[in-house]
Design the sequence.
């Protein structure tokens, strides 16, 4: 649900003059990993994250905001992490 709502949330946020003026054209967004992987499985979660990230990138371009994405990978295997998490993050 968070992934599905993210594009509308960011459109609303970037439409606020006070917020847009405060961020100096830059914004970071975490793309969640563990909860979506638990809810939908790893493949479905990865695809949903990709689609959402593409939508958010378009919204950022349209709003004139440079977006930086980072992935919430980490923690235990049950929460989506694994011993190779550091290397996986570096591969992005």
Sequence:
């Amino acid at each position: 649900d968070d992934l599905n709502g993210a594009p509308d949330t960011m459109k609303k946020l970037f439409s606020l003059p006070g917020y847009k003026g405060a961020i100096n054209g830059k914004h970071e967004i975490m793309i969640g990993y563990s909860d979506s992987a638990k809810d939908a499985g790893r493949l479905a979660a990865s695809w949903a994250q990709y689609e959402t990230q593409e939508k958010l990138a378009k919204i950022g371009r349209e709003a004139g905001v440079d977006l930086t994405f980072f992935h919430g990978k980490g923690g235990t295997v049950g929460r989506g992490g694994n011993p190779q998490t550091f290397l996986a993050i570096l591969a992005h």
In short: The CA atoms of residues 19 and 43 lie 35 Å apart. The chain has a mean pLDDT of 81. The chain is about 60% helix and 15% strand.
